[in-house]
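Section 3.1 - Work completed
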Amino acid sequence: MIINVENMGSYLHVSHFDDDGGLTYTDIPVSDGERYIWERCSPSDRRKDPVYKTWDGHPVRKVKTERYDKYRVVELLLKAPADLTKPLWDFQNPNKYFVDIEVEITEEMADALDTENAKNKVLSIGIATDKCKLIVLGLDELTDKQKANIHRSVNKHFEKFGDEWSFKYVKFDSEYDLMYTFFKDLGPKMPLMTGWNWFGYDWPYLVNRAKRLGIDPKIISPAQKLIGKNNLPMHLLMVDYLEIYKKWDRVIKIKESNRLDYVGEKAVGIKKIEYEGTLRDLYQNDKEKFMFYNAVDCALLHYIDQKLKTMQTLFKIAQLNKVEIDRSLSPVWSTEVMMLEKFLERNQVFTSDQKEEVHVKFTGGYVKEPIQGLHDWVACYDFASLYPNTMVQWGISPEVYKGKHIVEPKEGWVKCSSGAYFGGDDESPILRTIIKDLYSKRRKAKDQMLSIQTEIAELEKELEMLS
């Protein structure tokens, strides 16, 4: 599974996970003849390609460059030798690191929550691994007895799972040293870093606090680069567990709250550490329990992940769609890549030189106003996968879009309620092909799941008979 693709001109530097869950790289060479991007051109252009066209039928030409657009990068990966790209498309379980920070709370509570200015100190950083190892970086001195107490308390808190957690506390003389160690020494060794509300609080606070201390946050990246609106370190995977939980979790049926405390209780029957007063009071009065609190938040997320397995959905979508893992959160990009692959089979390509379309609003699904009152024999009907089934049945796809409000449509064209017309051709529309393929894979997966559930039920019956 791909983490990031770095364009180096003569090759693509691709980070991904190895079979042991660690970080590794594959370089995809780009020969001199392949160093170009596609550009739309006029039908009379002598340089137009004799074979390829755009996805909507316009002529294209090759423009020499080593600065490939996002579509050309995907094309290069798809056309690369299979022995090189196999680990990029294979499924791996990465080594996970669950991180949580605790920030100094002063009289101004808002300062501790202000990720942009990050005025308050980072007091501790807790890190839990999926191998049941815990480390807390802190600014305060703890005795050996206090460290042993935390170790014992962590294992008692999670004793129902039968795991043996190791625990290490590292004290730093200054916040600068703590933060520099996290960014320079520890962060680059974590192939997958996640936290609860990670992009909403912890990570932006760490980035901006580092800048405030005079530390360049880019040092956490193996490529010394932060990318995207979330300032993600290139070649390291970062995931906000809260984000994917809200998007894909199907285990917890009633979601009254998105707080870690609530989700922990509902998912695994364990809550965060309770304490009297405020978190500020806890830090001032009981450093040992404060660090224990930080450690538990990290380990709790590990068990939530084990129960919900929400991250597996993220990984599987990335693998299925052949996209970078963090970009699989975007249904638009995932769809574009699936379409690009199918269009390439027809010698059709995507270009990045199209003019931006004017954004317009579309009417959504129709919702009828209810008739108020108490009624007998009320029924509710739901059309399974209405939109994809409609696209499959009527052949609705972007490459067969003919325009709106056409005076003399051709026979066989489909008219939508918006006035848009879609007309089929000799080949099956791309979206119909993609959706049918996805449905086929979904049906196969459901059959496998049913077979496994039947086998589990039979084994449980045998165990009951033996007992």
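Second construct:
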Amino acid sequence: MWEARYQALVAETSAEFPGFAVIRKSDSALQRLIGQVLRVVTFGVQNAYLTHYTTTIGRHVYVVDDWDQWPAEQRYVTLRHERVHLRQFARYTLVGMAFLYLFVPLPAGLAWFRAHFEKEAYAESIRATAEVWGLARVRQPEQRAQIVRQFTSGNYGWMWPFRAAMERWYDAVVRSLENGA
């Protein structure tokens, strides 16, 4: 069932974004370079960019090498997240999105736009996770901590250091699901 849902999502995404492609990070010189730069600028904290993170740039979604071995449910949830980024790139353009995501107002620590864009995408991840595995999954403290950590650690360049604010945001997304929104 989930493989069919994932394939339908790929088809919908392809129709919405002509030129959409899923590309292995290891096949992209740009992605390999980004991985090296991130390792340096995060003092080694972000050393899993090529092996654990999916990245969207423009109409391309860059995935880890074992993407096809991931369970269909996980690919579905991840593509739901990345489709939010595809829509952001369509709205803000490649140059606009890159500038806002990387530099405004600061590249690290207070990267408001990066946090804003990722909050939109992670909210979709939370909704998709609840759809696939149920509300109990998104209520788990480990699930909450893992997503909050994306914002407050070097994983995304310490984009938003206010852990309590991120926890309140996460809880609000879960509450909206519990209230049927």
